[in-house]
Specification:
With 109 residues, the protein is mainly beta. The protein is built from 1 helix and 10 strands. The longest helix has 5 residues. The protein is elongated, with a radius of gyration of 17 Å. It starts with a helix and ends in an 8-residue tail after the last strand.
Length: 109
């Protein structure tokens, strides 16, 4: 599957931003948006959204909200060694395909 090939980062992973104003900051992935190659990362890439009143909120206003970060602008932070790393895949003896950290060799899934 194309999506899984490209999306080596999953929900609840910790990532570090490598470019832009949030460079060097870390956050937890809240959502993956495969169509846009984007990630919503907690408290990163915040933008102000002007909300129109609608049936849910009933009132408008300005809201701080996470905007998607392009996947090429982040690196995964290894949960084992806490270093930013590239993700590789390894196939286990039982044929499970798992991600592993190139830095410390630990399996991440
Ligand atoms: Zn590691």
């Amino acid at each position: 599957m194309e999506a899984t090939k490209k999306f080596r980062i999953k929900k609840n992973d910790t990532v570090v931003v490598t470019v832009g104003k949030d460079r060097g900051k870390r956050g937890k992935v809240l959502r993956v948006i495969p169509k846009k190659d984007g990630l919503i990362v907690e408290k990163l890439n915040m933008v102000k959204r002007h909300m129109k009143p609608n049936q849910q909120t009933r009132q408008g206003g300005i809201l701080d909200k996470e905007a998607p970060i392009h996947i090429s602008n982040v690196m995964l932070v290894c949960s084992k060694c806490t270093a930013p790393t590239r993700v590789s895949y390894r196939v286990l003896e039982d044929n499970r395909k798992v991600r592993y950290c190139k830095k410390c060799n630990e399996i991440l899934d």
